[in-house]
Amino acid sequence: MNLQAKLIAALLSVGALPLAQAQGADFEDFGRVVSVRPQVEQVNRPRQECRTEYVQVQQPAPQRSVGGAIVGGLVGGLAGNQIGGGSGRSVATAAGAIAGALVGDRVDNANTPNSGPVSDQAVKQCRTVDHWESRTSGYEVTYDYRGRNYTSLMSYDPGERVRLRVVVEPAQR
Prior knowledge:
Largest sheet: 4 strands, antiparallel
Number of domains: 2
Keywords: Membrane, Signal
Strand order of the largest sheet: 5-4-1-6
Structural class: alpha+beta
Shape: rod-shaped
Strand content: 35-45%
InterPro entries: Bact_OM_lipoprot/Surf_antigen (IPR051407), Gly_zipper_2TM_dom (IPR008816)
Protein name: Glycine zipper 2TM domain-containing protein
Number of helices: 3
Signal peptide: 1-22
Pfam family, one: Rick_17kDa_Anti
C-alpha cells in the first residue's frame, strides 16, 4: 500500500473514533462480591391428611318366615272347627285360626333375632392441612467495582466474584 493510501486510512480511522465513542462502548470485567443474602419466601402447599375410624353399624334384621303362621292358622282353624258346635262353630274356627297362626309364627321364628348383627365399618375421614415451605427466590448480591459498592438482585449465587458488563458513555451536560 502506498503512503497516500495509508494516510487516508489513518485519517478515516481517527475521524470515526468520535462516532464510536458517541455510541458507547461496552466490555466485560469482574467485581469482588462483598455479600450475598438469599431472598427467602414462604410458600403454602396444602396437603390432605386422612385417617380411618371404625364405627359400629347395626345390620338389618333377617326377614321373618310366614310359613309357620300359615300352617298354624290352618291347624288352629281345623281344631276350632272340631271343637265348636252350631252357631259357635264359626267363632271357634276363627279363634282357632288366629291362635294357631300366632303359635305357628312363634315356633317358626323362635331363633330369628329381632335385629341384625352389629359390625364395625371403616370410615375414612380427610382434612386439608397447611404445609408451609421456605423457598429461595433469588439473591441480593453486593459487590465492589473500582472502589464503589453496588447491589443487585440475581437468580443465582455468583460466588467470590461477579461477571459485569461495563458500558462507557459520555456524560450529558
